[in-house]
Amino acid sequence: MIRGCKAFNPQESRCAGESNPFFERAKSPLFTPRWSWFVSCVLSNALMYRSTSCNSLRKEHTGHSVTLAGWVNSRRDHGGVIFIDLRDREGLTQVVFRPEEHPQVAEAAHGLRGEDVIQITGTVVGRLTGSENLKLATGEIEVIASALTVLNKADVPPFPLDSKVANEDLRLSYRYLDLRRAEMTQNLKLRHRVAKSTRDFLDEHGFLEIETPILSNPTPEGARDFLVPSRLNPGSFYALPQAPQQYKQLLQVGGLEKYFQIARCFRDEDLRADRQPEFTQIDVEASFITEVEIQSLIEGLLKRIFREAKGVEIPTPFPRMSYAEAMDRFGSDKPDLRFGVEITSLTDIFQDTQFKVFRSVLDGGGVIKAINAKGAAGALSKEQLKKWEEWVKTELGAKGLAYIRLKDGEWESPIVKFFSEAEKAALAARMQFEDGDVLFFGADKHQAVSDVLGRVRLRVADLLKLTEGSTELNFLWVVDFPLLQFSPEDNGWAAVHHPFTRPKAEDMGLLEAGDYARVRAVAYDVVLNGVELGGGSIRIHERELQSKLFGVLGVNDEEQQHKFGHLLKAFSFGAPPHGGIALGLDRLVMLLCGADSIREVIAFPKNNRGVDLMTQSPVSVELRQLRELSISSTVKKA
RNA sequence: GGAGUCUUAGCUCAAUUGGUUAGAGCGCCGCCCUGUCACGGCGGAGGUUGCGGGUUCGAGCCCCGUAGACUCCGCCA
User: Do the interacting molecules here have an ipTM over 0.90?
Assistant: First the structure.
């Protein structure tokens, strides 16, 4: 069926210049220039499935003979002439079967169905005037088929591949079909582009890509580990790494100086739209580097990624905001600064209030704050405000959500009757309270008020569609995180970042004095539009300091030796000052794709229960396998 | 562990106040059709309304339970 074709004539291939499809092909990622020359000169097409991709042919290729292979994207069978949109990874090309020219081929084409895999050979022709399809990159040409080979027939797909599919369950069950959809292919291409830009950029900056073990040790703090039994060491377990944290620090002790890895990480926690049990981080660590240098490196990396993956120039350096300011003004350590609705302190205004609720909060050392939902009065009826209060109570554990709704000059509120005229006037002035606005109050301890109003702020933005249609890319460094946080559950101090994070030099006195709550860390998060892209820190490199920190975290000497002995010992052999960062690759690609779940940018993700619907993983295993691993299950078979 | 939303044909969705034989578009199958690109025309197949129970003369719709999907809280150093 496959015949020789003009394009494979070396003579012509040399002379045809710009109009030769091989030059076009040379630009296609499928074919390198060297290969196209080799292929065109040496091989006959009997040895190849295709001479070019389905997105490569243009008007200037008219007259060339080509061989294409791909999937039948759609067919338009007119009884006589038949049109097939042939699809491969790169795009679509219209193939025409004409009975008057190739009756047997056209006859065979009647039997083609969607997703059949075929190979065609034919001649590129310009489309009839007026029948060009501007929606297709190849829409000015078509290929008149002179030969057709059906490489594989396809069953009818369980869902359409050419439109949006809502049923994610079904998509994940047939992920290999879902991946054929242009949207998914684009997402994975973009993911590749991000990874490639990352490798290029970090390589150019002297970083070495080094792999660290997947079979590693359980982490005493942090997320639940995935455990892997060791057959050779009965009763012992590996853990899949939650992050390559300790290894990358040990690489610094090992003198590798600049390390990165596009690292798979594993956490056995509940899933979310932006959380999978296995995910990928761009993991970076370097020696003799300062906080500012890491931040500027990452700014450069993100600039490069957005330029090469998205064609967007992002301004650098990113603004910086302290954790304390972020919590104070926006009630979040990853504030979305694309909109205002800032949290404003009213504590001084209500200093002498007679309103019992505020009075007792203030007497107890709490604060009064509020946000102004500008123009939300129309969108928030009394019933809805009641629902918001219910939401705040049940989901956020707040005592309530006081509000004032200003509609037609009237202050509608259950609490405003307790305010004095002076308080009302000062309140209105500070909050720029105008007709149509709704004020939400938080009265509690500082942290609780920040948490609640931070969440209310986001819901207000959602209600008022403050970010809808926005193309703004608002990058931000949040810096000076607290080092430690008291955990009432464990009745002890826990690391906010992780136990290897360096305290700020100027706060070392506070650490010595045991004033743990006020010690700040040399830790930083990079935030984009309210999403945490990544975080890092300068680490502790001194054995004594690390040991002291472990002590503060409640890890006694014996446990330190047992769990972190290797690290402490390493630090005693001349560990260089070092620090790093990790960026969530999935989240980054998700934002670049405009997707609302990282499942959209992972080839084979798990569903909400951690199940791969395509392979049915995880599965139960034979008893024999468990015995081999010296493991018994307590699960009763149903 | 908790809260919410959802589940009707292969897919996306309808179905009035609880009332006849549960409909439409797309897809699929058959026939016709030589310039379409969301091809067109004619015809056809396709349903245990997630599952189980209850109320009722009568349930896709109301009630209870259960399963699953998704979103969120907890959790995620």
Answer: yes
